[in-house]
TrEMBL record:
Record's keyword terms, sorted: Acyltransferase, Transferase
Annotated ranges, domain Beta-ketoacyl-[acyl-carrier-protein] synthase III C-terminal: 213-300
Molecular function, one GO term: acyltransferase activity
InterPro entries: ACP_syn_III_C, Thiolase-like
GO biological process: secondary metabolite biosynthetic process
SUPFAM superfamilies to which the protein is assigned, alphabetical: Thiolase-like
The protein, known as: Beta-ketoacyl-[acyl-carrier-protein] synthase III C-terminal domain-containing protein
Amino acid sequence: MRIGAFTWRLGERREIDSLPELASDARRLQRMKKHGLACFMEATQSRESLMVEALQASVRESGMDPLSIDTVIYATGTFDDREDATLMPVVLRRCGLLNARPIGVFLGFCANFTYAFEAIEGLRALGRSRNALLLFSDAYPAGRTRLIRQDSAVGSDGVACCVVSDALERGYDVGPVRHHYDAQATEHLETGDIVSYVRAYSNGVRTSAEAALAAAEVGAAECRWLVTANFNRSVLRNISELCGIGVDRIYDRNIGELGHCSSADQLIALGQLLESDLPAATPVLVTGPADTVWGAAAMRVVRPAPTPTREAR
């Protein structure tokens, strides 16, 4: 399964100093900044506008006919059954995606990323989809705190998407997706048993990463980068240790500038890495850790074959 044509549209950058919860807690603010948190993105236009802009840009970059797209996997951690159900037909119509059916992924939060890949992986295996779009969108409604559990991240508003198609010449080949689920993890949170929750969380990250690497026949030491959600640097260090990948290979360049936009984080990072000088076939491990489910997939960079020189001909 190949992905590419990454695009994203985000809100306006705000300093975390502007968050009302931190207005009278200088020590907490200082601690968050020490761990790399500095800004978040706040939407100044509608989700519909952001989604349309990102989808249209992704289709243009792919060079594909919009009518050849047969599926749109829509993932969000802020699902509203009325708003989202009426929003998708409008977005698809405005983008000219008239042959695409929307399928929603809502229950995984940061793991919506790997849930979405698993969903399209299954559809492709059944011959039900050839060309698809993955669309990740999240926005925090007024009154809902952007501070995520134990200040591990600051929530942002934004949209990211990519194309899934074997016709792409540039992007990533995605290995088998693997998940670990533990419904009892939330019980630890409800009772305030943080030690047991951290144990369950660590097991989920480790188990899913090991399974994904084994399925793709890639060693942790081979992975040039670890891509995950934009958590603070303390959390990212723990995730890297659990995945067996060195701290110097965590892609953490967005945590201060962009904040945490749920599953869009990983797509943005993958798009940025593709613009770097990573050679073809470079392995990258991507993880989607959430409260009760943890997903992972190993990917390899794909680049167009070099044009033969006159001498080579």
